[in-house]
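= Paired protein data =
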Amino acid sequence: MGVTTDGASVMTGSRVGLISQLRPWASKQFFQHHCAAHKLELSIYHAFAIFPFMQHLDKNINSLHKFYMSHTVKRKASLAQTSEALNLVFYELKRIYRIRWVASEVSALDVIRKSYYLLLTNLENIKSPSSGFDDESKATASGLLKTLQNVRYYSLHLFLMDILKLLEFESLQFQRAKGTFIGLQERHTNLIHSLETLKTNNGPRIVDFLASCKCRRVLGTADGYPQLEYHSGCHTRDLSYSNFACPSGPGSSDPTERFELKQPGSAADRSLRNRLFDASGRGSVVDMGAYPALDEIRSRIIDSIIDQLRNYFPEDDYSIFNVLNPVLLPNAETLHTVFTYSSRIIPLARRFGMEDDSSESETEDHLSDSDSRDADASERATERTISGQFGLLLKSLITSHSVDFCAYKGKGPVKFWSHFLETRTVEWLPRIKNLIMVVLTLPISSAEAERGFSIYKHIAYDRRTRLAPKTLEHLLRIRINGPPLMKFKPDIYVNDWLKKHWRSDAPGGQRQKESNVDEEIKDSDSDLLSGLF
């Protein structure tokens, strides 16, 4: 038995929790797991919680949403009018919810990035004396504008998007209905490697920003004043010292449609903030007010995320599943290592109570070491052990099903093993087949169950409170499992209804039985239900 929960006390409580009630029934074969998607969200939350500037960034995103999407439609209408005047796409601003998946935060950040020039222009218009907005709106718009014009805020915004895009992909893999523990350790290792790369290499959004914008540099002095000029080909270090002029959107060449990002405060203020941050040490919470330069914080942010990922996803918890990863299986060139590789299945089998009996293992060792035994007896002994069955299975797949083995090896663990489980020509021995089916059916995430509750809210809302439980169950089943609406065939159902019901639109208001019904519709109720889809 395997149970995956979101970590709530009603599920994991030691006294009356669901897990504690189920464990006595399942004995040692019980498998409990904290939802991988939830653990990823928790690791992100705790990694960012120690940095005050991350709290400021979230607060600014939600302040923009509140400013335009709450309390009054006048500000939103003003933003829509500005987008129409500038011929820009108008995107609905979103807020960041800590109880949502990481994809929700990525979406909120991406909307801000796409609407950056639009927001700067509109906020500038609102805070102008002749805008017609009240003083409170003007003051709020001025504060938001100051933050958005901060080059350090914008670079942190883009850097955070590059990080969350990597984490979003991993989260979506966890949320899939056919997610599996097989290959999870490898994906986790690749994710950490990709995050490590961002310490020294810029992600795609930072790269695009530096390539499309121009940075202001000092060319020299004249009459005691610095001579400044904007140049292309900016570097990461320019994010700490230079102002930037950026196009309004991709492919924009109009010099009038550009926005400027500035460094915050004076050099003395920035030096003070830097000293405060450096002296605070990693993991300390020091309110620095303004956003620090990207070079000062990128390594600390990445290290914090990696530490939390390793804390929530220990390597030992998932390494036993790697033996079933199709990418790691032997091939035709390494066929001689099949039975050595198959011994790695033993820890996984032991975890689910399918380990070999000691007598069987001793018999196998004795037969393999004795030259007096014939090959048939040795093979029978091999088939009695879980590792022997796995070795025979791999040998059969590599030699007798080489085409499918190579074709499905790169399509993921679920498709690989499901294909051969459904292939009748594959000879499956019972114990290894049972183990692989158990591993494939273990739920890696509770997202699918939570998705069902979301769909339920879409169906049973305030105006549909009289839906019968049976009807709700049917609607949920079709909505979640299909088939899609385009495959629905209403003709049979409509004709049957006309055949069995009375008409109310007959001349004179007389209720008459419908007679013009296709005579070919003579299916029984069971035939009718089977023909709906």
In short: The chain is about 55% helix and 5% strand. The first strand starts at residue 2 and ends at 5. Residues 151-175 form the longest helix (25 residues).
